[in-house]
Amino acid sequence: MTQLLDVRKMNILRAIIDDYILTAAPVGSRTLSKRDDIELSPATIRNEMSDLTELGFLEQPHTSAGRVPSEKAYRLYVNNIMDRAHITDDEAEYIRRHLEQRVSEVGDVIKETARMLSGITNYTSVVQSPHLRNARLKHISLIPVSEGSALAVVVTNSGATNSTMLKVPKGITAQDLEKISKLMNERMIGYRLTDVHKTLLPLLREEIGEQADTVAEMLGSLDKDLGKQSVEVVGASKMLDFPEYSDVAKAKSFLSEIERGEMLSEVLSENEGVEISVRIGNENDNPELKDCSVVTVSYRVGGEQVGSMGVIGPTRMDYGKVVAVLRCMSESLGKVLSSMLGSGSENNNDQ
Amino acid sequence: MTQLLDVRKMNILRAIIDDYILTAAPVGSRTLSKRDDIELSPATIRNEMSDLTELGFLEQPHTSAGRVPSEKAYRLYVNNIMDRAHITDDEAEYIRRHLEQRVSEVGDVIKETARMLSGITNYTSVVQSPHLRNARLKHISLIPVSEGSALAVVVTNSGATNSTMLKVPKGITAQDLEKISKLMNERMIGYRLTDVHKTLLPLLREEIGEQADTVAEMLGSLDKDLGKQSVEVVGASKMLDFPEYSDVAKAKSFLSEIERGEMLSEVLSENEGVEISVRIGNENDNPELKDCSVVTVSYRVGGEQVGSMGVIGPTRMDYGKVVAVLRCMSESLGKVLSSMLGSGSENNNDQ
DNA sequence: TGTTAGCACTCATCCCTTTCGAGTGCTAAC
DNA sequence: GTTAGCACTCGAAAGGGATGAGTGCTAACA
Question: CB-based contact (8 Å) between B237 and chain A?
Answer without folding.
Answer: yes
